[in-house]
Specification:
Length: 130
């Protein structure tokens, strides 16, 4: 039964590729503290991965979100199911179903502490090349 539920939940067979492409897009526009949370074994998770970063300005948050959407579409031919937060650009969420992307303004990331809510997930940190 668990395998059956897992199949229903997934939209794509390439959630790892989507997550990697999201990280690539974030990194290309200097997203800060890029973290991938592997939620596949986390209790109650409704997605495979969260990919999270922050930026110093609203313009950069918006640019990173646009780059994520464009690069995933270009490389993998996957469109987001839903996007939220484009109006205020403090926290933009891009939902690819199996991968949910969070691009924060630095102050919003510090306030919401999303990573702490999923402390049981494996954390994959993109090391900065700066």
């Amino acid at each position: 039964m668990e395998d059956e539920n897992k199949r229903i939940r997934h939209q794509n067979d390439n959630s790892e590729a989507i997550a990697a492409t999201v990280v690539e897009a974030m990194d290309s526009l200097k997203g800060k503290e890029i973290v991938t949370l592997d939620l596949r074994e986390a209790n109650g998770a409704v997605t495979d991965y969260f990919v999270i970063c922050h930026a110093a300005s609203k313009n950069q948050v918006d640019a990173i979100a646009d780059k994520v959407e464009d690069l995933v579409r270009e490389k993998l031919h996957v469109k987001p199911f839903h996007i939220e937060g484009k109006d205020n650009t403090e926290w933009i969420l891009i939902d690819f179903v199996d991968v949910v992307v969070h691009v924060f303004l630095q102050s919003a990331r510090s306030f919401y502490k999303l990573e702490e809510l999923w402390a049981d997930a494996e954390r994959i940190v993109k090391e900065s090349e700066e």
